[in-house]
Task: inverse folding
């Protein structure tokens, strides 16, 4: 899921600072969750920014470079081997 835009984040902060409603009311007004508003306010107070955090990086690869190279060699030497396990290509 993409992070909310900085524009929307700043609007939530501005509305909260202008006392335009409670956190729950602002969440409903901007169609976001209450927990988003709470964490945005916490982040803004602690760091002074509304920028989203950087991407976490995803899953750690299951195979290291040596293992990937070995699989490549096995497939190169006998490419029918892969079809026995994974089926023929479409």
Result:
């Amino acid at each position: 899921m993409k992070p909310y835009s900085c524009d929307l984040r700043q609007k939530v902060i501005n509305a909260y600072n202008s006392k335009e409603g409670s956190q729950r009311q602002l969440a409903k007004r901007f169609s976001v969750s209450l927990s988003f508003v709470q964490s945005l306010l916490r982040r803004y107070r602690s760091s002074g920014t509304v920028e989203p955090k950087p991407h976490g990086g995803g899953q750690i690869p299951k195979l290291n470079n040596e293992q990937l190279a070995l699989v490549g060699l096995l497939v190169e030497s006998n490419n029918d081997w892969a079809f026995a396990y994974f089926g023929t290509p479409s």
Observations:
- Residues 40 and 50 are 7 Å apart (CA to CA).
- The chain is about 60% helix and 0% strand.
- The chain has a mean pLDDT of 88.
